[in-house]
Each structure stands twice: as structure tokens, then as C-alpha cells.
Design a protein that fits this description.
941 residues, alpha/beta, 7-stranded mixed β-sheet, 28 strands
């Protein structure tokens, strides 16, 4: 039995024979319907037919959730500007971007119904807005209101602490703006009258969809009444239920027995069942199916428009192909995208139709590149079996689709090749203007080739012609292609290929210019805007008190050095902890160097610590900011929690500053509690992870990003090799390479390369017995603090194994990565990958021109931080672009590990290395929390 026949038997057995059966499918009309929606409907119809074969009366309801808010604009629709002003309103109030229907939802529904009718599916389209407004749902909504506490808590459990702050299953629809109000605080319920009283908390911060920053509700709901009680009915469409509650409500209201859902909605389906159970109602059968994936294994999305659109499915798939595909077991995730069309069509062929092969037709058309349907027919009928007009139509549609969306780059012609093709097209045009039959293609090609290339040239004329015709080095037999396509098409393609090659070159130039223009938009120095409203700084800072607190912490670090080292001995090597304490002491005992920044206290600082250097990071990003604020809270990364808790038993940093606290909550709960009290965020990590945090805070919150830099070492031909090797050992092996100061590449002049490498290997051999687990206090290279990182690194080692000349050992059980040398000449491409491991990536260069090519790549500039130059280089000293490196980021005969101090700015010009986000500006450059808090939040405010 097929899956839907089994399901039908179950329902048939559970529902009394005299009772009609309701089944449903639901969709949100928020974007053009995709194939996944249609497939769910077709599959549900399989069940309907099976139940009807069992003699049951079945009602199939197709629910359009058109009262849901319009949260974001799909990228694949026209008139984006028209739609923008309707964000937040119910979808049935949003205009049709094609301006053909009364509303956006009606447009989507109409397109979907058109395809449903093609498959003769008998279902009843239900618009949720009408069911709400007509009172059809009133009885069930009142039931939810009577049981508000239970139902709301079930739903709240699934949304997390940030969303919990303004969550209610009831979303009032504003009588003034028509917006669906998703963020409220419910303050009273009258279940007898069906009314609720709520407020919109003006100062609450939410993450606006698609925004890089959090937004206050007073801005998000700027036209609504804020901070005042509002009473409204939940009946007759005055409120919409949040969708998880809405799903449960409509299932119960219609006595639905079966509905399908994607695997990604499993948790929501469980909530719907839990709600039904809590209300002592029979839960429907919610059947999970696997996701439809595009060719990149990503879920098909209406808003992204990836995968199949319904229009494409009609053009590319036979009805049999789709039905055949959907009848199979649906519980697995399955790829379902345009490129599968020929194979799916072939799989649906009957024995009598096996002479027709869509896959073969695709190969023929791909090779012959027909210019119209008629030529496609001729190619297929010449090379293939007899194909029906319908089969040819699907094959030709597939050819056009894949041709227009091809990701293959256009093959560029060299200047000589362009000259040859141009001359050939000109000569053929001259001849064909008189008589086509007079063309001797071989002689014409030979003459044009002789006039363009010398006799020693390696270019092959026919390969150039194939490249021009088919954007490939092969294709259909040329004589056959000319017979079908004709010389006029041949000449047109030759001329187009020359123009295309020129256009490709021009577009590349424009792209570079666009990148350059974008770079100039980023502020390169401290920028102050008038948008920021100064908080109420009431308390002046006593610098004497600052020095006193710093001295007390410094003394404690000195006195408890052994205890501190022991507390983190299972997390890092002794030499690292010792170094951290020394750096912390330097900052604390020299805080007077930063006295100018300690004037007024800000309200709150929130700090996300890095995965390395817990002591020094706590002092720099926690303790010092706490002396400038009333409330500073730091959160160590989850992977460090158990180790950090041991650390604070050895030395409790909060004892030395009463405004400092430490949180071990999950990240979302931590952010939820900090967004209202935070003036500045200090974040260490990647820009991608920074964005995940930044989007919850106000735009006017100072956000200091400490990222990761490339920090290459450059060893020139006149370098002191011993000094350079000592530096390389220091910066690469420190904390087993888990440091943003570590170099991605060590660039060595060819005259210095051999001796540098030999001395480096000699030094590594000397410390082989100091590589191991943390239980040996003499070890200077230990396991990676994130054991899983070693697994990722193993994949990278495999990728680079041809360049590995020393080491290369990884223990994925304990995370130990032994010092390793990779050697790859710079002429084969620079390394810009961050390893966070004890890896020496040696790259031999021949001259300054090769250095310039390394530093001028876009992959470098994003993470540009410091250069350690040993010896001299005219390019680095005098010519390197200041947008990439300012003079103070070029270190001469020293390295970052030796010059970095907690009282001086740290970072580079790359926005992924270090930058500041403030009032919507991205300010690239180095950071120093005490300076940045003063400059942006205290000075000039």
C-alpha cells in the first residue's frame, strides 16, 4: 500500500462511518506560491481520493492565512517601493504588485488556484480574514481566551527570552493604521465580553526583520498609541492569533482530521497538538513530510524565489512526472529543482514511451544551442528518436531555462582571438550577401587565421569558433549545425561573441569601481552624529578611585598568580596564563595613560568575551569599562563556562568593582536582559556573529567589534633571520595559534627562504617535547580549546596536504594539533584563511610586485590589521595603500605580541579586523574601549 492509502485507512478506522471527514492544507500568501505548496495540496488530494474510495464523504479545505502581517518584501516581485509602505499590515490589505488583483493575497491565491485546477483537485479555498471577520472562528477564539494562560504559555515556550518580552497569542489589528500589532504587553482579559486590554511599551526593543539593529517600539509603531491602555475585542477579526496558536485554533474550529506540514514545522505542529490536548480536544493527524531542497541543498523559500516556481513547473515538468514524484514516500528531504526536470520526466515514462528520453534531448540541445523552437525540433528529430510535440516543448523550455540561468562564466576571447572572429564574421558577411552556396568555410577560416596569427601560434581556429558559438570548446558537428541554423545565425553569433567579450571586460571594471565606491562610504575616522541622544550621565568619575581599584586588582593578580594559573590549567598552557597576568598588570598599573577618558559614567556596558585569554579579556573588556559605567556585565563564551567558573573562584573580579557582574546565561537570555540598560557593547568575534548580536541593540548603541586580522610577517632579503624566526615562533605558537594576532601567511623573500625555513624547523624540533596535554606545566602548545575545531581543521589539512612539509598531525579526540608547516609559493596565490592553530604558512616571494599582488586582493583588505616587516621593503614602507594599512600598523623588526598593550588602541583598517558601529555608521580602524566610550558617548554630549 502507498503511504496515503495507509493514512486513509487509519482515519477511516478512527472516524465513525456516518460522520463526514474534514482535511486541510494551509499556506501563507506572502510570496509567489512555489512548488512545495502545490505538492502539499496534491499529496493531500491523494488522501482525499483514497478516503473517497473507502466510501467516505470528504471536505478538503485550503486555508489562506491572509490576515497575517506582511513582514518582508519578496525579492522576486516588481514594485518593491509600492509594497514597502504596507509592511506590518495584514496581507489582504497589501496591493497586488502586478496591479491585476484587489490585493497581494488574492494575487497569490489566484496563481495557486490556477495550478490546482490543472490537476483537477476539488478543494474549498478559505480566506482566513473572512473566517475571522464573519465570526466563524469566534467560539474557538473565546475558548482560547478562557484558557489564555495555558495556551499562551505553551506558545511562549517556543519563542525564546527576547521575543517573550512582548509576546501574546493575540495580535490586535490597529483601527487607525490597519497594522497587525505583534508586540504588546497584555494587562487585562475579560473572557465574558471577549475583550483584552494591552499597552504597546514604547521603550521596548525588538529586532525588525531584515534590520542590522534593534528598534524601539516607539519607532516601529510610530503612528500607534504608546504606553497607554487600549481595550479591544478579540472577536470578529479585531485580533489575529499568532500563527502557532492560529494553526491550532483553525484545526479545532473546523474539526480537521488530517493536515500535512514540512519537517521545519515539526516543533510548531507539536505545539498545535499540545494546545488541543490541553483543551481536552482530539488532536488531528499532523503528517510530517521532508523538505524540498534547491540545488544547493537549501530549503525552497517563497521570499527567496529559489527552487521551482509554479510557472516553471508547468513549463518543465509533465503532469505525470510531478504525480509520480509525489506518490513516493514523502518523509525524507529531497532535492527538487529545475535541473532535475529531464530525469523526473524520464522516470514517469511508460514502457510504450521509453523511446522518448528527456535527458538525451537535453544533451542534444545543450550541445547544439538552437536559436529558436524550429531549429530545436530539427536537431532533436535528426539526432533523437521520434518525439511528440509536447515532449519537444518541455525539452526546449528546459534548454531556455538552463541557458538563461547558467552559472558558467562566459569564455573571454583574447585580443587576437577577437580580431580573428571579427575578421571571419566580416568576410562571411561579405560573401553571404552575394551567394551563401559560394562560401568555402574551410578556406575562409584558414585565410582569416593566417591574417591574424603567426605560424607558430598555438591557438586552434576551430576551438575559437566553437568558443564563440557555444561558449565551449566543443559542440554540435559544425556542418550539421550550419545546415539547420544557417549562415546568418552563424555570423550573428560570431559578432555577438566579440561584443560579449568586450562587455564582460567592461562589467568587471564597473564591479571593481563599485567595490571602490562602497569602500569610500565607510568612515575612516571618528565620526559624530547629532542623531544620538545623550543619556543622563549623573555621576562624575574620580580618577583617584579608578587608580585605587586598578591597584587592588593588580596586587591580587600578583599575589594569586599560582592559584590563577592552576584554575585555568585544564584550558590553556601555563605560559599563556602567565603572559595574560603580565599584560593585565601592565594595563592596571599604567591606567594613568588613559586618564583623559575617565570623566563621566555611562549607564551600561555589555561585553562578550572571546574564546581565548579569559584573564586579560576580562580586565580589558570588563573591569576597565566597569570603572566608566554604572552597570557592566560580561559573558564568557559557552565553551569556556566551566573553566571560567574555576577562574573566578581563584580571583573574583567583581570584588574589585561593584559595577561589574558576570553572566553564564544562554546568549539569548543574556541579551534580553541587557538591551535596555546598554550604552556600549564590546564584542569579540566575526562580523557575521557580531551582526547576530548587534541586530538586537539600538542603532545608537555603541558597538565595538574586535575581529580577526591577517597580520602577515614579511621577511625581506635583508632581514635578520634569527630575529624573524624568533618572532614567527612567538606569534604562531602563542596559545597554540588561537589568537587574532597570529599570521595567516609568512611571506619570505626567495633569497632568505631556505635559511629561514631551516632555522624554523630547527627551532620546532627543539620544542617537540613541549607539545602535549595541559597536565604538563612545561608544555607551550596544548589542545585547541574547542575540540570540534580540530575536526574542521582536519578537512582543511586535507585540502592543503600537497603543501604540508612538516607536522600535519591532528588528534580529533583531544583537540591537539601539532605545529605544522605548509609551503606554497606566493606566485600560486596568497593564503587568507584563518587557521586558529599552530600553523606556519610559508610563502616564498620573488619581488615587491608579488607582495603588492598579495596585499591588493579583496580577501586581504577586509581583515587587514598589522604587518610585521623584518628587513626592508620599498613597497611596504612607501607604497602600500593607506586604506589598507596606516603607518602605525606596520611594525618594523618586531611583532604585535611585543608591542600590544591594553592602554593603546588595537586593530587595523579592515572592517572584519576591528571597527565601530554607531548611529548607522561603520567606522573602520583600531579600537580601545575606554577611548571609544569616551569619544562617542561622553565627549560632545
Amino acid at each position: 500500500m502507498k503511504w496515503y492509502e495507509i493514512e486513509a485507512q487509519k482515519i477511516h478506522s478512527n472516524v465513525p462511518s456516518d460522520k463526514e471527514i474534514n482535511i486541510s492544507a494551509g499556506f501563507g500568501p506572502t510570496g509567489l506560491p512555489h512548488i512545495g505548496t502545490l505538492c502539499e495540496i496534491i499529496r493531500t488530494n491523494f488522501l482525499k481520493k483514497s478516503l473517497e474510495k473507502l466510501g467516505r464523504k470528504v471536505h478538503f479545505h485550503l486555508i489562506s492565512d491572509d490576515l497575517d502581517p506582511f513582514r518582508k518584501i519578496p525579492l522576486n516581485l516588481p514594485n518593491q517601493g509600492l509594497l514597502k509602505e504596507f509592511l506590518g499590515k495584514s496581507i489582504n490589505q497589501v496591493p497586488d504588485p502586478f496591479q491585476m488583483k484587489n490585493s497581494f493575497s488574492e494575487m497569490v491565491e489566484d496563481k495557486l488556484v490556477e495550478h490546482i485546477n490543472r490537476y483537477n483537485i476539488d478543494c474549498n479555498l478559505v480566506q482566513n480574514s473572512i473566517s475571522y471577520q464573519s465570526g466563524e472562528y469566534n467560539a474557538e477564539i473565546l475558548n482560547f481566551l478562557h484558557n489564555y494562560e495555558v495556551v499562551n504559555n505553551i506558545c511562549k515556550e517556543s519563542v525564546g527570552p527576547l521575543r517573550n518580552r512582548t509576546y501574546s497569542i493575540f495580535m490586535p489589528i490597529s483601527p487607525t493604521s490597519g497594522r497587525v500589532i505583534e508586540h504588546i504587553n497584555l494587562i487585562d482579559i475579560d473572557s465574558d465580553t471577549g475583550e483584552i486590554t494591552y499597552i504597546i511599551p514604547a521603550d521596548e526593543i525588538i529586532n525588525k526583520p531584515g534590520s542590522e539593529y534593534g528598534i524601539e517600539l516607539k519607532d516601529f509603531y510610530s503612528t500607534e498609541i504608546l504606553n497607554e491602555p487600549i481595550t479591544t475585542s478579540v472577536l470578529d477579526g479585531n485580533c489575529k492569533l499568532q500563527w502557532k496558536a492560529d494553526w491550532a485554533m483553525r484545526l479545532l474550529a473546523r474539526d480537521i482530521r488530517f493536515e500535512m506540514h514540512g519537517e521545519d514545522l515539526t516543533s510548531s505542529a507539536n505545539i498545535a497538538i499540545k494546545i488541543a490536548t490541553s483543551l481536552e480536544r482530539e488532536a488531528p493527524r499532523l503528517y510530517k513530510y521532508g523538505l524540498f531542497l534547491d540545488d544547493n541543498y537549501k530549503k525552497i523559500s517563497k521570499s527567496k524565489g529559489n527552487g521551482f516556481s509554479l510557472e516553471k513547473s508547468m513549463d518543465l515538468l509533465t503532469d505525470k512526472a510531478l504525480i509520480n514524484y509525489l506518490e513516493k514516500k514523502p518523509k525524507r528531504n529531497s532535492k527538487f529543482h529545475v535541473n532535475l526536470s529531464p530525469r523526473l520526466n524520464d522516470l514517469a515514462l511508460t514502457k510504450n514511451e521509453l523511446s522518448v528520453s528527456y535527458t538525451k534531448a537535453q544533451r542534444i540541445l545543450s550541445a547544439s544551442q538552437p536559436h529558436n523552437l524550429q531549429s530545436a525540433i530539427e536537431f532533436l528529430r535528426r539526432y533523437s528518436f521520434s518525439m511528440s510535440n509536447e515532449a519537444i516543448k518541455y525539452s526546449y523550455n528546459y534548454f531556455l531555462e538552463t541557458k538563461s540561468t547558467s552559472k558558467s562564466p562566459k569564455l573571454k576571447l583574447s585580443e587576437k582571438e577577437k580580431k580573428f572572429v571579427g575578421l571571419l564574421s566580416f568576410c562571411l558577411e561579405e560573401i553571404s550577401a552575394e551567394k551563401t552556396q559560394d562560401i568555402n568555410l574551410y578556406l575562409t577560416v584558414h585565410d582569416c587565421y593566417k591574417n591574424t596569427f603567426d605560424k607558430h601560434s598555438k591557438e586552434h581556429p576551430w576551438e575559437i569558433i566553437y568558443k564563440s558559438l557555444f561558449n565551449n570548446n566543443y559542440g554540435s558537428r559544425l556542418s550539421t549545425w550550419l545546415e539547420i541554423s544557417g549562415y546568418n545565425e552563424f555570423i550573428r553569433r560570431l559578432k555577438d561573441s566579440v561584443e560579449m567579450s568586450e562587455t564582460t571586460f567592461i562589467k568587471e571594471l564597473d564591479l571593481d569601481k563599485a567595490s571602490s565606491d562602497e569602500e569610500t562610504k565607510i568612515a575612516s575616522k571618528l565620526t559624530y552624529t547629532t542623531e544620538y541622544i545623550r543619556p543622563n550621565y549623573l555621576e562624575a568619575i574620580s580618577f583617584d578611585l579608578v587608580k585605587e581599584k586598578c591597584l587592588k586588582l593588580a596586587l591580587a593578580l600578583k599575589n594569586k598568580r599560582d592559584e590563577i594559573i592552576q584554575s585555568v590549567s585544564s584550558y590553556q598552557c601555563r605560559n599563556v596564563t602567565d603572559d595574560e597576568i603580565s599584560r593585565s598588570l601592565d594595563l592596571l598599573l599604567n591606567i594613568q595613560e588613559n586618564q583623559e577618558y575617565f570623566k563621566l559614567k555611562v549607564q551600561g556596558v555589555t561585553s562578550f568575551l572571546p574564546l581565548n585569554q579569559p584573564i586579560y579579556a576580562t580586565v580589558c573588556f570588563g573591569f576597565i569599562p566597569s570603572l566608566m559605567s554604572k552597570d557592566t556585565c560580561i559573558r564568557p563564551p559557552t565553551a569556556m563556562h566551566s573553566h571560567y567558573q574555576k577562574l573566578i573562584k581563584a580571583i573574583d573580579f567583581t570584588y574589585f568593582s561593584n559595577s561589574l557582574s558576570i553572566s553564564f546565561e544562554d546568549k539569548e537570555s543574556f541579551i534580553s536582559k541587557r538591551i535596555q540598560v546598554t550604552d556600549a557593547v564590546i564584542f569579540t568575534g566575526t562580523p557575521e556573529n557580531a551582526l547576530k548580536v548587534r541586530k538586537h541593540f539600538r542603532k545608537k548603541t555603541l558597538f565595538i567589534l574586535n575581529g580577526a586580522g591577517h597580520n602577515p610577517l614579511v621577511i625581506s632579503k635583508d632581514a635578520n633571520i634569527d630575529q624573524a624566526v624568533e618572532s614567527a615562533m612567538r606569534v604562531v605558537l602563542y596559545n597554540q595559534g588561537q589568537d587574532c594576532a597570529g599570521p595567516n601567511s609568512i611571506l619570505i623573500h626567495q633569497d632568505s627562504y631556505s635559511i629561514f625555513r631551516q632555522k624554523l624547523v630547527n627551532e620546532l624540533e627543539k620544542i617537540k617535547n613541549k607539545v602535549g596535554l595541559y597536565d604538563d606545566p612545561d608544555n607551550i602548545v596544548g589542545p585547541n580549546s574547542d575540540v570540534d575545531h580540530s575536526i574542521k581543521l582536519a578537512t582543511i589539512f586535507k585540502q592543503y596536504r600537497e603543501y604540508c612539509t612538516y607536522g600535519g598531525e591532528i588528534n580529533i579526540i583531544n583537540g591537539l594539533i601539532r605545529p605544522t608547516i605548509f609551503e606554497k609559493p606566493l606566485s600560486l596565490g596568497g593564503n587568507y584563511k584563518e587557521f586558529f592553530a599552530p600553523i606556519f604558512f610559508l610563502q616564498e616571494y620573488r619581488c615587491d610586485e608579488e607582495l603588492e599582488s598579495y596585499f591588493s586582493q579583496p580577501q586581504y583588505s577586509k581583515n587587514a590589521m598589522y604587518i610585521s616587516l623584518f628587513g626592508s621593503s620599498d613597497y611596504i614602507n612607501n607604497e602600500i595603500n593607506e586604506n589598507i594599512h596606516l603607518k602605525d600598523s606596520i611594525l618594523i623588526n618586531t611583532d604585535l605580541h611585543l608591542v600590544e598593550r591594553g592602554t593603546t588602541p588595537y586593530g587595523g583598517q579592515g572592517i572584519a579586523a576591528s571597527c565601530i558601529y554607531f548611529n548607522g555608521e561603520v567606522i573602520k580602524g583600531n579600537t580601545l574601549p575606554q577611548r571609544d566610550i569616551y569619544n562617542h558617548l561622553v565627549l560632545n554630549t
